[in-house]
Amino acid sequence: MSNEQSEPIANRDTPIPVVSVTGPPDHSRPPTPSNENGSQRHLSPSRLKEKLESLGDNFARPESPGRVSDRLFTMLLSSVLPSEDLSDDSPTPQVKDRRSRNYVDRPNFSLPAMSSNFRRFNARIGVAFVFQNRAIRLFTWRQPTQTLSFLFVYTFVCVNPTLLAVLPLACLLFFVMVPAFLVRHPPPPMHLPTDLYPLSGPPLAAARTVKPAPELSKDFFRNMRDLQNAMDDFSRLHDAVLAFITPLTNFSNEALSSTLYIILICTSCALFISAHLLPWRFIFLIAGYAATILGHPAIQDQLATPENERLFSEKESEGRSMLLSLSKADIELETSPDTREVEIFELQHRALHDEHGEYEAFLFSPSPYAPLSPSRIAGDRPRGTPFFEDVQPPRGWRWSDKKWTLDLLSREWVEDRCVTGVEVEIEGERWVTDLHYEELEDSSSSVRKGKKGKGKESDSEREVLRRAWESHKPSRRGEWRRRRWVRGVERVPFGNGADA
Hints:
elongated, 46% helix, 7 strands, alpha+beta
């Protein structure tokens, strides 16, 4: 018995469609009563098709190859997609993404669009793989005459670099237009080797057009195979390059990376001065010949021996050890953490018309909430935290001092920020208190009435408020006062809780 259990059919008070197909009528048998007239009803093929179409559109419509491939790729992509949102609308990303839509406006990810674009791309990428296969055959010496011909052309280009301007046009002529002409004007089937190619006469065949590979065809799956292999080759090359370069350049070993940086910058400066003195034609000629000769099968067999592989590994280890010893001898890194000083302003408030009232603690704010600050002019309330303990160091930093220190140089920070309309205490608790101007209050109220509903005030309105403060004497202290507290912070080293 099979362990699989079939799903039960649930009756939801809906009729179950049943189709019955019978053969041609047999007159030797008595009619079977199936209706009121006592005659049996036969279902023709056309009526069977109509019956199936009435049951559902999918029963009578066979899926096209494009729809099948579309569903195939959609299922494939949906199985590998992550569950989180891939859009760029996440606020304040921690790592700057140069592929974000903030830099270039491109369509968002869409599974149907991805499936359709992949099928279109795979149908048209065959020419790239043809070029790849020809390059592999050329540099692996499958046909030595072609490889030698390439070396001759490369030699001419290295000797006379101006031939680079002719090379694309020559490739277009000999690899595109000549084959297209041969398709339109094929040679006669029987001719002597000494006969000239017939150039006259009407075209004998249709012009060749490049068309995408039909979906689910042999060429389509060949492109998929080559694309699969190309992805594997790129992944291997990518991992090999990163495994070689990343430990040297990512400053995981800061002394080693610093040594390499000094070597590279010195080499760059030397080449900037003396690059025109180097024989670049000879250098490129030797490099091209060496790369082409290394692709010969005999040379590859010699290089792939275990002894040579062990020799290359030893030479690489010796080079790295030499850089390490050089970095340890000449590079001395600063290990003390970077220190800074952060500030917080203690704000106190009292009612404006309560001249004899006491100031009450309000909050600790990162800004002094000066009389001419944009938030103050706009009528916004100060922002901050009511307790010292809630003030946190910046991200990636930690406190280097045990407690906050009152800034005794209150006049200096007031002058540095060009704060006006305040009274500064140079002794005592160092409060910087607002000064209330009666005419200023009238001017600001009229300005706000005139600009009601138009957003923030302009620079000319701020200049009016500034002149009012400079030209009139205060009547009493204002409703806000503040003083500055400072505290030292230092960078958190990697591995001690800092954000990577």
